[in-house]
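Researcher: Can you fold this with iron/sulfur cluster in place?
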Amino acid sequence: MSDTKTARSTTFSRRALLSACGAAPALLAIGAFAAPPKVSQASVAFLDGPRGDKTCGNCRLFQAPSSCLDVQGPISEHCSCRIWLPPLA
Ligand code: SF4
């Protein structure tokens, strides 16, 4: 009896895995794994200058040379915004 349960469990697991693998291309096609949209500069109180020692250039989200992972538009390393994040240690 327990052998039957194990066999069914293994079959189900294999089926679930194959199903998940088959769904991956479809999820990619609809953009399920796409990055979330960026927010506007106005919505994060973007400043054309630093906030104390916080600048885009030392923010975790800055993407050199001139963009941000979360905020739209060209971003200078000398600017700052309300969602600044410290660099990872
Ligand atoms: S301070 Fe704001 S705009 Fe600048 S890189 Fe960080 S999150 Fe982006």
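Model: Folded with iron/sulfur cluster in place. The beta strands are 62-63, 67-68.
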